[in-house]
Amino acid sequence: MPQLPVSRLRLPEGPRTDVVLAGVVLVLAGVAEGQRLGPDRHATASVVVSWLLAAAVCAALPLRRRHPVAVGWFVVIGAGAYYLTSTVDGPAVVIPVVALYGLAARGRIRAATAMAAVMVTGVGASVLAGTGDVNGTAVFMLAGWLVAVVALGAMRHGRVAYAEEEARLRATQERLRIARELHDVIGHTMSMIHVQASSALHRMQKDPHQAQEALAAIKQGSKEGLRELRATLGVLRQVDEEAPTTPAPGLSGIDDLVSSAVRAGLDTRVERSGAPSPLPAAVDLAAYRIVQESLTNAVKHSGARHAVVRLHHGDRELVLDVEDDGNGTGTGSGSGIAGMTERARALGGTLSAGPGDAGGFAVRARLPF
Fold it and tell me: φ and ψ at 364, to 5 degrees?
């Protein structure tokens, strides 16, 4: 079902609009009251009072943005008094209609409804008083107009509230996405650095050459981690800053992940099947992060020595498996598995993680596109 743009329910707004509208209504009210002047153009006390009431109601309209409820009650009571003193059905009713719409559009539905009821009651009282052009039909039409105006204002408020809630939801989802990206980048890099640093400290005295290789691996891993971190944080840049030029990670960088895992002591190989084809950016990134998180968990938690990454390219989906020969514990107390699962679900896919059939730990994901 197509969404109705909020702007379609938006009437002209702004203080200048209120001033112009009040001026037009005041002129029309003056013309209408001019019909009550006698042959000698003499204004009776009733005409003067009607003019003053119309002027007061029109003058209050530009103040409705600062004091919406107070101005609303003033124009409603003023319009009711105007209709009690005037014998013509003047255009002053436009002012309280605009005020009621503004109140309802701001979410003041109860106040707008109460004012509409008072206004209809006042005009009905003028019918009982026997004023000229105001009759039962006018009261019925006014009631219908006021109901419609309050309903339109309430609809406008609901649309705006829905749009704001949708914007907040999108912002929350974006923050969660960024948090997952940061977790994947920092968690993977720091895990590899931790393993290599432990290895370097252990081998420093016995085998300086291997310790030097571990330190070189730390240097390379930290460099790659910083590069990915800069790319991820690029989404938080200011509007006037230049866009980051580093592309988002994808399966094209899986060899770097394997090399990093091998340097950490996890013998890893990649097996591909199917007909490889260009993947959508979201699927490519999700697959990369799932492989990255799986290898990180294997290094940190499972005590595995070997791991295999299987990638099967189907016509409409990518299926990937990451299996290791560890102790069957592929995750610690973090949120890595939950993050991978959310990535797969966001694409309409699935992910399962648990002890493998032949021991160790296995992660299997299906990412449709």
Answer: -125, 130
Instruction: Give the chain's count of helices (H) and strands (E).
Output: 10, 5
Cβ atoms 292, 184 nearer than 8 A: yes
Run of H or E residues at 367: strand 361-368
Q: Which two three-digit tokens encode residue 358?
A: 């032949």
Strand partners, 310: 271, 321
CA-to-CA distance for 219 and 206, rounded, in angstroms? 21
Q: Look-up: residue for tokens 């309050």?
A: 150
pLDDT averaged over consecutive 10-residue blocks of the chain (369 residues)? 42 70 76 65 70 81 84 82 70 80 85 83 66 63 81 84 79 71 67 70 69 71 67 52 58 86 86 86 86 85 85 91 80 66 84 84 90
Q: Which residue in the block uniquely carries the two structure tokens 């600062």?
A: 66
Asked if residues 304 and 337 have their Cβ atoms less than 8 Å apart, the reply is no
- Strand 317-324, strand 361-368: pairing: antiparallel
Bridging pattern class, strands 361-368 and 350-355: antiparallel
Q: Show the tokens assigned to 312.
A: 């099967």
CA-to-CA distance for 234 and 104, rounded, in angstroms?
A: 42
Terminal Cα-to-Cα distance of the chain (whole angstroms)? 24
* Residue 155, token pair as written in the block: 């609809």
Number of residues assigned to the chain? 369
Q: Is the model's pTM score more than 0.85?
A: no
Cβ proximity of 283 and 318 under 8 Å:
yes
